[in-house]
Amino acid sequence: MRGGRAIGALLPVVLLATGCGIRATDVVEAGEPAIVAVEPRGQLGTVLYFVSSSAAARLMPVVRHTEYGQEGSGAASDGEKTGGGAVRALDLLFAGPTRMEREAGLRSELPETRVKMGIELSAQGVRVEVDVPVTRLSEPARQQLFCTAAQARTADRTEAVTVTGTDGVIGPAHCSL
Predict the structure, then answer these.
(1) Which of 94, 140, 143, 88 lies closest to 115, judged by CA?
(2) H or E element: which one contains 171?
(3) How far apart are alpha carbons 171 and 146 in whole angstroms?
(4) Which element (helix H / strand E) includes 144?
(5) Confidence of residue 136 (pLDDT cuts 50, 70, 90)
């Protein structure tokens, strides 16, 4: 008798669950995955932008924790602290992703080389001068430069960035993220 009562009590629940009017559907494409704004803690982190291998032109932010006193190869004209700001960020960007970042599917479209650079920060934005060609860089490589340099200046990446290389000028442009 107990088994009959248990089945009798569960029967309405089973009928409600199966007959609630929701039909099965195919998978619905909802676009790209969400992007999370990542900002470094205090002054000891630098945000770099690398290309995700999972999407041809998708940039992903990476926070590199740095120490003051690590020298950059360039010099900023606004008196930035050594080891911080746009010079350090671009030095790290040109060095490419770390082994762990590569294993996570990140890569760089920029040439991995030691670059001499000068950076000027002004009311008009960020002006970067590098000793490598820039006009033939792919769009993801350009965005890596624009987003990293703008992020080093302001957290919201709204700064206009102009990059002068050995073969010409790209920009002024804004980070597309």
Answers:
(1) 94
(2) strand 168-173
(3) 9
(4) helix 139-153
(5) very high
